[in-house]
Design goal:
mainly alpha
Length: 108
């Protein structure tokens, strides 16, 4: 995966996460059907992007050093995600990998 593709994938995650947070904060006790549908669609798409990120980490990280660098560079984007109930497993896996690389960089 090229550096540009890695950056675009992480940027897509960032865009979807900010949109979901905005929609959830706008959520009212009696949410209209359009807003509820938009929240569900954004959540599903965000989960798909997180699954793609996790698949890259699990199966092809040695072949994608640019992707690892991009994750390290933009690691702050994943900080709030571990607390989200729907995405906690995927986010914790990403955080574990980022922490591993942070430890290796500090040792060097």
């Amino acid at each position: 995966m090229s550096s540009y593709a890695s950056q675009r994938l992480i940027s897509l995650y960032d865009l979807l996460w900010r949109q979901l947070v905005k929609l959830e904060h706008r959520r009212e006790p009696q949410m209209d059907q359009d807003t509820a549908g938009e929240v569900a669609l954004t959540s599903d798409f965000l989960q798909t992007v997180l699954e793609i990120i996790n698949l890259l980490l699990v199966h092809s990280l040695p072949r994608n050093p640019e992707f690892a660098y991009t994750l390290l560079h933009r690691q702050e984007l994943f900080a709030d995600l571990c607390g989200h109930s729907r995405f906690s497993v995927l986010a914790c896996n990403i955080s574990t990998v980022v922490q591993f690389f942070n430890d290796k960089v500090e040792q060097a």
